[in-house]
Every structure is written in C-alpha cells, then in structure tokens.
Amino acid sequence: MFELKETENIEFKRELNESLKKELVAFANTHGGEVYIGIDDSGKIVGLDDAKKDLEAISNSIRDSIKPDLTLITSAKIIEIDGKEVIKIEILKGTKRPYHLAAKGLKPSGVFVRHGITSAPATEDSIRQMIIESDGTVFEKSRCINQQLTFDYTKKVFNEKQIGFEECNQRTLGITNEDGYYTNLGLLFSEECQHSIKCALYDGNTKLEFRDRREFSGSILKQLDDAYEYISLQNKVESNFKGLNRVDREDYPYYAIREALVNAVVHRDYSFSGSILIHIFKNRIELVSVGGLVAGLTLDDIMLGISESRNKNLATSFYRLKLIESYGTGIRRIYESYSKYSVEPEFKISENAFVVVLPNINYKLDIDDNDEKVLKIIRNGGKVSRKDIEIELKLSKSTVTLILNKLLDEGKIQQEGKARNTKYHIKNKL
Fold it and tell me: Are the CB atoms for 113 and 126 separated by under 8 Å?
C-alpha cells in the first residue's frame, strides 16, 4: 500500500495544472523535493487519464516557463501505484537561485519558496540574498532584480563613440551575463538606474546659505553629463590683464572637475543606496562618493599610480568610451591640474566615503583678520605646521595654505623642511 503525505519536501496534485510551475520553482529555491501528479491532497491515488501526454507537457513547461533552466536538476517519470498511472517529479535544490516564472521575472510574483507544506512568494530581501549566494557579492556582476531595462541614452552615447551595443556587445561588457540576464551593471547604464547624483549650491562657504539644489537620475552616463554641465555653469571665469593681453582663468580647472566627477561615478560602492553628493561653495567644490578605498589600498598607493577598481566592468566600459584615459592616473592628474596655482586639492578618506575638495583658484579670501591670528600662533609656537594652524583656527587646509602663502610673499614668515615636515616661523629681521 502506497503511503505518503504532504510535507515540506513532498507535494501532491490531483491533476496537471498551472500551479505546478510555482511548486517546482519553490522546491528549486528551497531544499528540493518531489511532486506527485495523480494523487489528491488527502493522499488518495486518483491516477491520470493520459499520463504520457501530461509527462510531455511537463517537460515543455519546465523548459519554456521557468528560468534559469531547470532541466538539469529535475527528472520526471510515470510510475504505477495501486494499478493507476502517476507522474513523479524529483527536483534538486538549484545552484542558480532564484529560479522564477519566466513571464513574471525576478519579482515576488515570479519567485517562490517552500514554507512548510505550502509554496509562497519570496520577499525582495530573500530574492536579493539568493542572488548574492548564487552570483557572489560583486555588485556589478550580480543579476538585477529588474529585468525590464531600457537603454535609450546609453545607446546614443555608444553610437556617438562608434561602439556597438548589440546583445553580443552587452555580454562582452558585462551588461548581461552568460544566461542572458541583465546584471546590476546593466541597471547602472539603464534609464531605470536607482542611484543618483545630488548637487547643492551655497551662497557662502558653509551649508547655512543654501541657494539651489538639483538631483540627476537615469543612466549614469546621463547623470555624468548633467552633473558636469551643472558644475560648469557655476565655474565662473575671471579676467585680468598682463600688459595689453587679457588673461582668462576659470575658478576650477575643467580637467579637475571632469576627473573628480568621473572617478566618483566609476569607483563608488553601488551596494550602498546613497547618492553621490556635490557641494558647491564660494571657495570650493566638494564631491562625496559613497564607499572608501578598495581594501588594501591607501592614498599614497593611488598617488603612485596603483589602481584597483571596485567596479572593473564599469571602469572597462568607461575606458572604451574614452571617459577614462588610463588606469590609476586620475588623482595624480587632479593634483597636476592645480600645479600652477597656490592652492591644491584635498582628499579625505573614511571607511565608507571618499571626498575630493577642489579649491576655487580665483577666490578672493578675506583673510586680513586671520593674518594676525596665524602670526600670533607662529610667534607663540616658535615653529608650527600647517596642520597645527588648521586645528587651532578650525580652518580648511586650502584656506590656511592661502594665508601662509600670502605671509610668505609678504616676507613675514619663513618656511623650512619639506612635505609633512614643513614648519613655519617668524622671519628673522637683519
């Protein structure tokens, strides 16, 4: 006598119907199991009128209606119980979870898991966890939950650069994976990208005097273009005359803006949902990128040209689009773009953020009041570093640098030592 009852791993179905696909998906996503068709919920053997025809329909359904392919982890056969034909389907736990109904996609309406003796829709969190377990933790390579992506802006940019964006190109770039799924890299390039760049414009040098705010969304290529255009509109030009010749100078070197913005987009940690933040003050621009340096790297390493990208496929795509000229040179090039001026960029790094500070070359600092404060600190300290002055007066590195350069030019102080060992003291009178 055949004795079975429904459990977490066993499911009965009186006849073949559409709900079978949901059960198979649930077993593949959980611990595997068995489905018997021709047995009702109570365990009574009812059999099938045409088991052979049903078996063929099951094979077609598994192949065509469920993704990724379940055929390698399922087996189906006709067995005889109490003289009646029943179909037994065995399914293993899959290695490419989450499995889902092809028509529904990677959404709770298409992904199911086994709970007790029932199959229930998976939550978005559990879907993400299954993707991580199957695809790994590299954000850009993982399957995107949203598989309905559009790429109008990205296609336009690729066409302008005469780079193909057909299915084969998308596979090569990593926008789709080997099974044809869009990856999270595809999400970044799509109009449905969930990350953004936020810009804020201030009247002064603090966040107290807010003037304008913009948020740029869509494909990261569109965000990059829109943010660069917005910053460029704030990049005023100052004109001076040397003899009869007029000399124009922007507040910020265009190359520094471009490189800092591209770096923020390429190297940020997209596993965090926060936006790239750009703060535009009178005396500086701050670009805040989510995610610190890749583990093991330091700022000194980057200055030496050592490069380790968090988003390798994204960096490769930007390189092909000629948005990146060469690997590992961005920070050094930002420094070099300021080499002719008395101020220099700053880089601040924490575990979860990377901040680039670009000082305004043309900023006319009202530093007369601070001159005496700095001179007093130097007199009292004998020999002091720039950092000592920053801490005591609570001023930025660029501001203190401007004051020190002014006092040096006026011959009021002297400098000794180099790099981090630089000290300042009152100039000796002859």
Answer: yes
